[in-house]
Amino acid sequence: MADIFENLIAKNPGETEFHQAAKEVISSIQPVLDANPKFVEERIVERVLEPERLISFKVEWIDDRGRVHINKGFRVQMNSAMGPYKGGLRFHPSVNQSILKFLAFEQVFKNALTTLPLGGGKGGSDFDPKGRSDKEVMKFCQAFMRELMRHIGPHLDVPAGDIGVGGREIGYLFGSYKKIRNEFSGVLTGKGLNWGGSNMRPEATGYGLIYFADSMLKANGDSLEGKTCIISGSGNVALYAIEKLNSLGAKVISASDSSGFIVDEAGIDKGKLDFLMDLKFNRRGRISEYAEKYSEARYVAKNKELDYNPLWELKADCAFPCATQNEINKKDAEHLVKNETKLLAEGANMPTTLDGIELIQKSGALYAPAKASNAGGVATSGLEMTQNRMGLYWKREEVDERLQEIMKNIHDTSLSVAEKYGHPGDYLSGANMAAFEKVAQSMVDQGVI
Ligand code: NDP
Question: Does pLDDT of 1 surpass 90?
Answer without folding.
Answer: no
